[in-house]
Design a protein that fits this description.
alpha/beta; 8-stranded parallel barrel; 12 helices; globular; binds 3-methyl-2-oxobutanoic acid
Length: about 290
């Protein structure tokens, strides 16, 4: 018999799996209440980033239950070197496109750098734009203890918040891209950050680039789901940046990425074939012409 985790044996997934976040039967949009129920059932779930309607529609049809309009759009979609320059206007436009391209997934949008650090009121004003103008179901912001007041006001105002601790890319100028939570003091700080965002009302928390054992401990400690990226196998959910996961990103990708396809090669091959057909006169042919 397969060994079940404590959470699974306490509250098993229904035998027909109808409520499952991935593979479930429901066609209405997933809500943060469904996410909480999945944690109670001990069900793991996948999250992918998306930055445009068409890609998002593919992931929605594939059954991805939660999509993040990440400010990784800065590096992966908009041509910036980091996430720091991304603006609230850009996030609003990209998020609206992802909402339009999907019908089932819960869409979470990142609050970009500079749109919430001034304090709770600024955070509420920024998050309100993403909810009203783009139609997202939740927002994400970076920081643990340092962001708890922002999270509290958003949640009090009816806006679900996903927190993000560990490596927080918006702070790249201060912290670089290094593993977080190594050593006793840093591990204790990460645990404090995780509890602070849970106490403030976050419905989930991303753990980025954190030692696997520490991520497992945070996952056991919290009653909200943890979403790992470079945080080992024990988190409740896993997120990847879609351009990394599908092999579209050029150059090196982080060690924690698993590549499920090589879109860069496929697209480049197709572009070259098209160019050669045009140059050599093989395209268009009669069947591509109108008369
Ligand atoms: O912006 C993003 O894509 C993210 C994920 C890496 C979690 O924050």
């Amino acid at each position: 018999m397969t060994q079940l985790s404590a959470a699974q044996s306490a509250k098993p997934t229904p035998p027909d799996g109808s409520r499952a976040l991935y593979g479930g039967k429901g066609t209405r949009r997933i809500t943060v209440r469904d996410i909480a129920a999945a944690k109670e059932r001990g069900e793991k779930w996948p999250m992918l980033t998306a930055y445009d309607a068409m890609t998002a529609s593919v992931f929605d049809e594939a059954g991805i239950p939660v999509m993040l309009v990440g400010d990784s759009a800065g590096n992966c979609h908009l041509g910036y070197d980091t996430t720091v320059p991304v603006t609230l206007d850009e996030m609003t436009m990209l998020s609206a496109a992802v909402v339009r391209g999907t019908g089932r997934a819960l869409i979470v949008a990142d609050l970009p750098f500079g749109s919430y650090q001034e304090g709770p009121v600024q955070a509420l004003r920024s998050a309100t734009r993403l909810v009203k103008e783009a139609g997202v179901g939740a927002v994400k912001l970076e920081g643990g203890e340092r962001s708890h007041r922002q999270i509290e006001l958003l949640v009090e105002s009816g806006i679900p918040v996903m927190a993000h601790i560990g490596l927080t890319p918006q702070s790249v100028n201060a912290m670089g891209y290094r593993v977080q939570g190594r050593g006793e003091e840093a591990a204790q700080q990460l645990l404090r950050d995780a509890k602070a965002v849970q106490d403030a009302g976050a419905f989930a928390v991303v753990l980025e680039l954190v030692p696997a054992e520490l991520a497992a401990e945070v996952t056991r400690t919290l009653h909200i789901p943890t979403v790992g990226i470079g945080a080992g196998p024990e988190t409740d959910a896993q997120v990847l940046v879609w351009t990394d996961m599908l092999g579209l990103t050029g150059g090196r990708v982080p060690k924690f990425v698993k590549k499920y396809a090589n879109l860069r090669e496929v697209m480049s091959g197709a572009a070259k074939a098209f160019a050669e057909d045009v140059v050599g006169g093989a395209f268009p042919q009669e069947e591509h012409s109108v008369h």
